[in-house]
Design a protein that fits this description.
By secondary structure, this protein is α/β, with parallel strands linked by helices. The chain folds into two domains: 196 residues, Glycogen Phosphorylase B (Rossmann fold, 3-Layer(aba) Sandwich); 150 residues, 3-Layer(aba) Sandwich (Rossmann fold). The protein is built from 14 helices and 13 strands. Strand 6, helix 7 and strand 7 form a beta-alpha-beta unit. Helix 8 packs across helix 12 and helix 10 crosses helix 13. The protein is globular, with a radius of gyration of 21 Å. The chain starts with a strand and ends with a helix.
Length: 367
C-alpha cells in the first residue's frame, strides 16, 4: 500500500504531539513493508532526510504556492497514493488536497484532540470555517479516527460525521529502555510536568495553585516556552523550571520523579501521559481532560477534580499510598503496551485504510 501522511513536520524530533504521532505511525507502517511518504510544505534538512531514509520513509516536498497548485491539479490524473492520511484540523491546504484526489473518499482524517473547550477558543471563526470547509472535508473522508468519546461527539454533532465513519484509535508511543523507575515511596516527593506553558489550555494556573498547597512536594516543569506567558501568576518557591527534554533524556527525567501530572482544561490523549505510563511512573490528571473516563475505568492513574483545594488534598493522599500507585502503574503499563505499541497502532490504521479502499472498490463496481 502507498500511504501519504500530511501535516507532520520535517523534523521528527520537534516538540509537537501531532508530529510525534505522524512520524511514529509512518515508521511503524514502513516497517510492515508499505511505501510511506510524509508530505511536507517546505524543505527538510539533510539530517532529517537521512533519519527518514533509514526508517524507510520518503519525503514529498512541496515548496511554495505554485508548486502546491501544480501538485494538487495533477492529483486527479496521476495519483501517487492509495490512501492519504490527513492530520489535525482547520487547515485549508488539506481541504484543497482532498478536493483533487482522484477517488473522492480515498483519505482518512485524524483531528488529534477535538473538544468543546478547543472549539470555544476563537469560536466564531472556527464555526464559520467548519461550516464552509471542514464539514464538507470530514463528511467526504473514508474514515475519521477519534481518540476518545468526547472527540467522537464533537465529530458527530458539529462536523456532522456519520457514527459509522468514526474509528476509535490510540496514539502510538515508542518505548525507551534502560531506566529503572524511582520507588513510589521515596522522599522527597517530586512531581513533573513536560509541555507548553499555556495557563488556560494546559491548566498551568491550576498546577501552580496545587503546588502552593503542597510546599513539601517539589514540582518540576520542563518547557522551552517563555516564562512571560505566566506573567500575573504567583510562582511558589517549590516550583522549578527546566529546559524541555526529548527522547532518552525525557525518560531519564521520568525515572527520577514520584509522579507525572497534567492539569489541562483540554487534552486528547497526551503523548507525555502515555510515555509516563510506559516508564512505570504514576500519573495524575484533571477530570476536565477527555482521557479521564478511560483513566478512571481502567484504574491507570489518579483523576483529580478541577479544584486546586480538593485536587491538592487528593494528590497528597495518593502519593502517600505507594500500594495504590504501584497497582495503577502496573495496569497503566499493560494498557500502554497493549494499545499504544506503534506496531499495533499501525495495524489498526492499516485495517482502516483497507476498509476504506474496499468500500471504494465496491462502489466503483456497483457503478
Amino acid at each position: 500500500m502507498i500511504i501519504g501522511h500530511i501535516d507532520g513536520g520535517t523534523n521528527p524530533n520537534s516538540v509537537n504531539g501531532v508530529n510525534y504521532v505522524v512520524w511514529s505511525l509512518a515508521e511503524a507502517q514502513a516497517a510492515k513493508d508499505h511505501t510511506v511518504y510524509i508530505i511536507v510544505f517546505g524543505t527538510p534538512s539533510a539530517s532529517d532526510v537521512t533519519y527518514a531514509t533509514r526508517r524507510g520513509i520518503s519525503f514529498l516536498e512541496i515548496r511554495g504556492t505554485l508548486a502546491f497548485l501544480s501538485w494538487i491539479f495533477g492529483l486527479n490524473n496521476s495519483p501517487l497514493f492509495d490512501i492519504v492520511h490527513f492530520h489535525s484540523v482547520f487547515l485549508p491546504k488539506q481541504y484543497l488536497v482532498s478536493l483533487f484526489l482522484k477517488q473522492a473518499r480515498s483519505f482518512v482524517i485524524t483531528p488529534h484532540g477535538l473538544s468543546w473547550v478547543l472549539l470555544k477558543k476563537n469560536s466564531l471563526r472556527k464555526l464559520i470555517y467548519i461550516k464552509l470547509f471542514d464539514k464538507v472535508h470530514f463528511r467526504r473522508a473514508g474514515a475519521v479516527c477519534s481518540l476518545n468519546s468526547e472527540e467522537s461527539l464533537v465529530l458527530t454533532n458539529i462536523f456532522k460525521v456519520s457514527p459509522e465513519s468514526i474509528k476509535p484509535v490510540f496514539n502510538p508511543v515508542v518505548s525507551h529502555s534502560g531506566y529503572l523507575p524511582r520507588s513510589s515511596s521515596e522522599k522527597p516527593f517530586r512531581v513533573a510536568y513536560l509541555g507548553r506553558l499555556d495557563p488556560f489550555i494546559k491548566g498551568i494556573d491550576m498546577l501552580l495553585d496545587i503546588a502552593s498547597r503542597l510546599p513539601h512536594v517539589s514540582f518540576e516543569i520542563y518547557s522551552n516556552d517563555r516564562r512571560s506567558s505566566l506573567d500575573g501568576l504567583i510562582i511558589p518557591e517549590n516550583v522549578f523550571f527546566f529546559p524541555a527534554v526529548y527522547g532518552e533524556d525525557k525518560f531519564e527525567v521520568l525515572s527520577k520523579v514520584t509522579l507525572y501530572i497534567q492539569t489541562s482544561r483540554h487534552e486528547g490523549f497526551p503523548i507525555s501521559i502515555l510515555e509516563a505510563m510506559k516508564a512505570e511512573v504514576p500519573v495524575a490528571i484533571t477530570e476536565a481532560m477527555q482521557i479521564s473516563e478511560i483513566v478512571n475505568e481502567r484504574k491507570i492513574g489518579l483523576v483529580m477534580p478541577f479544584d486546586a483545594i480538593k485536587a491538592s488534598a487528593l494528590l497528597d493522599q495518593y502519593m502517600h499510598d505507594p500500594v495504590k500507585m504501584s497497582q495503577h502503574v502496573s495496569q497503566a503499563k499493560h494498557f500502554a503496551n497493549e494499545n499504544c505499541n506503534p506496531a499495533n497502532v499501525a495495524t489498526v490504521h492499516l485495517d482502516i485504510y483497507t476498509q476504506v479502499l474496499k468500500s471504494l472498490d465496491s462502489r466503483s463496481t456497483a457503478v
